[in-house]
Design goal:
With 369 residues, this protein is an alpha+beta fold. It contains 6 helices and 20 strands.
């Protein structure tokens, strides 16, 4: 931006005023204001001092602040603890979640050990095949009596399960399956007794029926076991995810310095409740201040290049000239009082940290073609 210096010459006037009379006054002729182009190669713009790096840190999750380790003006190194949230409830939740993981692991291991096999059904079928074609009637009656007892017991247990509304449906289904098998067994024994008086063909039919039932029973048992296995595996994975989530929350309950610098602001204190993302501490590299221009227009930015020399004068220290170089020219334009401007960052060669402050206003002078 071209700056113009307007030089105005004052008017010298002498007037004499007397009581009851007037004295002619002689004054020098007024000189017209002279507007001078300061320097076609000079650009002077406004700027503000800012740290080379700063960041406002916050907790990823909300909670009560238990400890604030720093205060404004403290110097910290990268990785230093800045503040912590109260983690009492999270620690208790972690213990409970880890216990749940152990329980789900034991349930899954027990299910794995009880996978259905065909061994029991195969043995029963082999025994049926070697039986006499004309079973002993007394033995058949004894089997019928035993089947009746089993059926009654199965019926009682199933009826009791219907009254236990808190049990899951698959538990009642198991009692129903036992009852169904007991009924089938009872019917089979009854059929054996009725057919004891029949010929060899009745025996062959009975063996074939048992084979089909055994295959069906094994298939159903295996399907049910696989469903239970899948549910147990899912519950275990969910419990493990819960542990990981709580561990992450515990880690996020401590704020660390992301880089070395000076604490400039601490708007919270121990005992305060903060929300996720709420500013807690501002950290800045106050020993590495730089100037950021405010009103460098689009007409002048094309005359500025990275690495170009610049002189910075701070308004509070008019007698101190700071040298520097253009470190970066922002690619995105901004609006400043209706003008299109492009911020430019000037890295200072020397920073008198004891004199300069973040936010001080300044003028930046460029020697541009």
């Amino acid at each position: 931006m071209k700056k113009w210096i307007v030089v105005c010459l004052g008017l010298l006037a002498l007037g004499l005023v007397g009581c009851g009379s007037s004295v002619a006054a002689e004054s020098a002729p007024a000189t017209a204001p002279v507007v001078v182009d300061a320097d076609a190669g000079t650009i002077i713009v406004e700027a503000a001092l800012e740290p080379a790096q700063w960041q406002t840190v916050s907790f990823a999750s909300g909670g009560e602040v238990s400890v604030v380790q720093v205060e404004p003006g403290d110097s910290v190194a990268e990785g230093d603890v800045l503040a912590q949230l109260d983690t009492t409830l999270l620690e208790l939740a972690l213990v409970e979640a880890q216990a749940n993981v152990a329980f789900q692991q034991s349930v899954l291991a027990e299910l794995t050990a009880t996978q259905p096999t065909t061994a029991t059904a195969s043995l029963a079928l082999e025994q049926a095949r070697v039986q006499s074609a004309a079973p002993d009637i007394a033995a058949a009656r004894a089997q019928l009596a035993q089947a009746e007892i089993t059926l009654n017991n199965a019926q009682d247990e199933y009826n009791k399960s219907l009254g236990r509304s808190w049990e899951e449906e698959w538990v009642r289904n198991q009692y129903a399956e036992v009852l169904r098998r007991a009924e089938l067994d009872y019917q089979a024994v009854q059929a054996q007794l009725n057919k004891a008086y029949q010929a060899q063909s009745a025996h062959s039919f009975d063996v074939e029926r048992q084979e089909q039932e055994a295959a069906l029973g094994y298939t159903q048992a295996l399907t049910h076991w696989e469903q239970q296995q899948l549910q147990a595996q899912t519950r275990l994975e969910q419990a493990q995810v819960a542990v990981t989530r709580i561990q992450t929350q515990l880690a996020d309950a401590t704020l660390y310095a992301p880089f070395a610098g000076v604490i400039s602001d601490v708007p919270v204190k121990a005992g305060d409740t903060v929300a996720p993302g709420q500013p807690v501490i501002t950290l800045a590299t106050l020993a590495q201040l730089r100037a950021r221009t405010k009103d460098l227009t689009e007409l002048d930015v094309v005359r500025i290049t990275e690495g170009q020399a610049a002189t910075v004068t701070v308004e509070a220290l008019p007698d101190v000239n700071l040298s520097g170089k253009v470190a970066r020219i922002e690619l995105q334009a901004e609006d400043y009082r209706g003008d299109v401007v492009y911020p430019v960052i000037i890295e200072l060669d020397e920073v008198p940290a004891e004199l300069l402050r973040w936010g001080m206003t300044a003028l930046v002078e460029f020697e541009a073609p």
